[in-house]
Amino acid sequence: LLRFEPPRAGKRRVRALDQTESPDEQEAQRAFDRALALEDRSPRDAMVAYRTVLAHDATIGPAHINLGRLEHESGNFVAAERHYMAALALSPDEPTTLFNLALLAEDTGDPRLAVRRYQRVLSIAPDLADAHQRLSVLYQSLGDRDAARRHLQHY
Question: CA-CA 20 to 30 A from 85: which of 34, 65, 92, 108?
Fold first, then answer.
């Protein structure tokens, strides 16, 4: 069976709360935990909690990734890209961020950019099956059946 809907990268966690952290870091962690708990039942409230995390500490990459994904799923592509790019600046080789950026390129109608981004994902995580699956679909739509077949076989 082939999955025809694009897979969505999962939620990202941060470290466990550490009593040696500053009050600001502790509040960021509590807000992150609250955001994770809210994602399934109230994405809007989760987004507010992730914004609280980032107000306390803008260097928490998983908060950018998760908020970007929620913005993306809400159709707020500009905000999603801003958060994905912030996460990418913090961790340039993070496959989840790169994968989400590739999905965003697909969703905004730029298949060639999506292909380049998926290729970058695979340069870091060569066995990421979902990236091979998405590339297969994209190459098929772009008329490159050989590349589509190669990625489908790898998938």
Answer: 34
| Token pair recorded at residue 5 | 């809907």
**CB of 89 within 8 A of CB of 59?**
no
Question: What are the pLDDT digits (tens) for 58-91?
Answer: 999 999 999 999 999 999 999 999 999 999 999 9
**Rounded to whole angstroms, what are the CA distances from 90 to 49, 63, 68, 86, 144?**
20, 11, 14, 6, 34
**Percent of the chain beyond pLDDT 90?**
75
Distance CA 71, CA 74 (A): 5
Rounded CA gap, 105 and 72, in Å?
A: 11
